[in-house]
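Why do we care about 3D structure at all? Because function follows from shape, and shape follows, mostly, from sequence. That is the central idea of this module. The next example makes it concrete: a single protein chain, its amino acid sequence, and then its structure expressed as tokens.
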Amino acid sequence: MRQTATQSAPRSTTSRPLGFGAIALLAVALVVLAISALAVSLVVSGGAYEPPIAGLPDPGPLVVWGVPILRLLTEIAALATIGWLLAACILDPSGKDGVISRVGRSDAVRASIAALIWSVLALAQMFFVLANVLGITLSQAFNPAVFATYAGDIPATRALMITALLAFIVSFGAFITSTIGAEAGWLIVALVAVSLPVLGGHGSGLGDHALAITAGTTHILAAVIWIGGLMALALHAVRRDGSLQRSLQRFSAIALVAIVLLAVSGIANAYTRLESLDQLFNTGYGQVVFTKALLIISLGIIGWVMRRRLYSGPKKTSGVALFARIAGLELVIMMIAVALGVSLASSASPRLQTPFNSFGETLLGFAYPPPPTVLTVGLGFRLEPLFLTLGIVGAALYCIGVARLRKRGDKWPWGRLIAWLLGIGIMIWCTNGGIATYSQVSVGLHMFQHMTLTMLAPIMLVLGAPATLALRAIKPGKGFDRGPREWLLWLLHSWVTRIATNPFFVFFIYVLGLYGLYMTPLFGWLMGSHAGHVVMQLHFLAAGYLFYWILIGIDPRPKPLPYWARLLILMLALSVHGFFAVAMLMSSTPLAIEWYGVVQPDWIVDPLRDTLVGAQVAWGLSEIPTTIVLIVIAVQWSRSDEREAKRSDRQAERDGGIELTRYNERFARLAERDEQG
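And the structure:
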């Protein structure tokens, strides 16, 4: 008996959860390892401090080394925040009535603390970046006059200020809320915050703005979701305070998507920063890229092996211990990979900026297109990765949903499938076709793109009824757990959707997209950056989708409008659109001359005439979508009356027409009273 007890003691010791002190020491060790890897990679990639030539400004080694170190610490805090928010709203067991569980509440509090640290580190990094960009000492950067003069004008410091503010909002919000929907909202805000510094990084200075910025943003989002989620699961594994098997099953699907996005965006990043494959091996920058790629590949292999062994493990306790050990190894490799990524962002890439013949072409990132023709506008191509990817994924998921319905014997109208694919095709053409190139140098062609993207593509997408298809094709979750179908149902009935489908709100967004954009300097400012251009196009598409959803939408919504109200809103929108076109026609100054006056090709000889052409396009092109919507509303109204008539007939058959009899008797009594009077 004594020997048995002695032999069993080690097994109980290995299954004992780690205390807070041991976890803190492991976390500190990971951070120290990451900083060490960062220092080595900075030396290799050429991002380490070197004294400048005499006479040039020198911020000093403290600033030059401090910028990447603070960026690394900021990203680690962001990883922890996003990982615990992901666990709170998706990975952890769900509570009743949409309230997070006890484990989820603990993760939300951890996320709140991490977000507060993230906010403080982002602010500290902002001052270091300010000193580095201006070439001044850190004490000078803290001067209020210097900060007030320059901090808002430098994209990197401006992004860090907004990041710090958003992180603080997430910290406060995650602490005071306790519903799954709220934690999901804070997760979205955190993902927006972590992507902001990327928009002001090296990608904005490369010739291929679209690919560089989209790839960089996708890379950081995929990384923080993957690494952050693993950090949260590893903590639960060592503390033994969660349902690891269930959480890991959910995380596996998320991790698979993240790994694919990470690999694809990593290849795109390397393409935008390296001139050739040889630079992967004969430059320090390329060697760091190659090493990081090997680490990511090894992480994918380790994760696959770990999950296979965990699912086939004989005992739950041994599975948890196995996961904790392998997850620790993964986190070590991930921290090194994050450090390498920070060093790459802090070092100059070997690829030189593409030289152009004019300042306007440098701003655009491509040479001026030739004079527009039907072929160049209609059949040309310029890659916009975000909308192309969204379109392909949206079309593929829709076709998969239709195939799933038909496989189980359910029907789905072919017209809806055709409408959805047609809407996707229009969206891709507007953002990746020749029109996307010409819209950046011509107001007239921009208006053609805008009207098509706002008024034609959303009509087809709305008629495709994607939410209805998803509700029928996706399987419901088990118990209180929220799967994709439950999240969609929650969104359709949430206060967010009630506000978004309120006719006053939709009409305001529609009007704001015209007058608030084109009648203010906002239009020229958004056109000045690729990120602003993408935001503007997303606004066009979203505003159009909401507008036509409340008018002709088939998908369920909180409060459908009567048909007479839909016609009234359509007529009001048409009137507002007409007044906007008239205001442009009467204008005596070109539209957004601060942008289109700079990126003006030789074949545009009169910017004011180009603006008037845009006004004519805005006036004439609105007639086609309006006619389509009028026809759809008329058909829907007619079918609604037919359904109501059939319902009344069936009711009459069931009760012998008692409702009609009572109606006739009432009028007979009124007629008899009139005769007596």
